[in-house]
Amino acid sequence: MKAKKKRVEEDLIKEALEEEHRIRKAFKDKDWAEIKGANSWMIFKVMSEFVEGLEKLAKIGPCVTIFGSARVKPTNPYYKMADEIAFQLVQQGYGVITGGGPGIMEAGNRGANRAKGKSVGLNIYLPHEQKGNIYIDPDKLITFDYFFVRKVMFMKYSQGFIVMPGGFGTLDELTEALTLIQTKKIGRFPIVLVGKKFWHGLLDWWKKVLVAEKMIHEEDQELFDLVDTPEEAVKVIDDFYSKYLLSPNF
Questions:
Q1: Which terminus of the chain has fewer CB atoms gathered within 10 Å of its CB, N or C?
Q2: Residue 103 in this model has a pLDDT that exceeds 90
Q3: pTM for this one?
């Protein structure tokens, strides 16, 4: 017990020192060679991630992205809902894209795999190393260093977004999609929030603060749908494309 406590304390100290080093490094003066070398490497790394993503996803076909928490366990009702949503999406002719990790992402890939459909994972390198889950098609797993490149791939190759409960990462992905649609940078694809109880507080705040303070227009609240069941979530996607008489395969 003492040894375990000591390891935890050592890990906390190490983490604090690494964080301090990152902060100090940001203020350190760099010479021209350091700046040029670091920037050149970053540019080529970003380019390589864009090239790999564009090449692998260009012919992926109609897909819906499922966002949600990596911390949700298989026993959680939201995990089971994400699995079922993905399963039903595949039955309707869609592939499924997730962030490639555990939790809701794993559930989405699992449902797609269970329905024998396309199961895509856009994974991300993290300090504690997020590994791609086992339900992703081997030829459809891409791992990124940069969150912004990964988000471009989500937005470019999705015909709809299912947003399950999640934390900061999920909120980042949700607001990215809403912003791009609001500013007409991408088409008016359906965004479906799943879990009325979970999302109630945030949506109430948007209405009482963002709309009231004129930070967003009242009609911006129509950019998404709120549902409680897998059937409702999939119906929103299907109804959207039926309404505009579009095939999602574009």
A1: N
A2: yes
A3: 0.84
